[in-house]
Specification:
By secondary structure, the protein is mainly α. Helix content is 58%, strand content 6%. The chain is rod-shaped, with a radius of gyration of 39 Å.
């Protein structure tokens, strides 16, 4: 170890420097306090960061729940609109042809396209991935929402 005052090489256990006669004990105590204080500061920083992460996690969780509820409500409304549209198409087809569509096979969709005079017509899909099924005359239900 070096003397903090004269920088001479001295014994690690020295209390007083043999060269400049300065007391080294005071410097050692302040160094211990600094180390102790640094440890406390690290704990405070760790606690602060942990608390911030908890707050951020709670904030994100509640926003996710809000988004999930809002998204599902919108998806249900979109699904309901799709079912109404499909029901109208089926009723229109029945009025024009006096024939009832019983399933959504390629043949049935082709017939609907011919009656609607729309070669691009497709059965809309549920926003969450459900399938529309005809369960009564001109009535459609979704495999997810009904």
């Amino acid at each position: 170890m070096n003397c903090p005052y004269c920088q001479s090489k001295i014994d690690d256990r020295a209390i007083k420097c043999p060269f400049c006669h300065s007391f080294i004990l005071e410097k050692r105590k302040s160094a211990k306090k600094t180390i102790l204080k640094t440890g406390t500061d690290i704990f405070k920083i760790f606690a602060g960061v942990s608390l911030a992460l908890v707050f951020i996690s709670v904030f994100l969780y509640f926003n996710y729940i809000h988004f999930e509820v809002k998204y599902n409500a919108k998806a249900k409304q979109d699904c309901l609109n799709n079912k109404e549209y499909i029901n109208e198409v089926l009723q229109f087809y029945e009025i024009r042809t006096s024939e009832i569509i019983r399933d959504f096979s390629e043949d049935s969709i082709f017939k609907i396209r011919m009656v609607l005079d729309d070669k691009e017509f497709e059965i809309p899909s549920c926003p969450l991935g459900g399938e529309y099924i005809i369960y009564e005359k001109n009535k459609v239900k979704c495999s997810l929402h009904d």
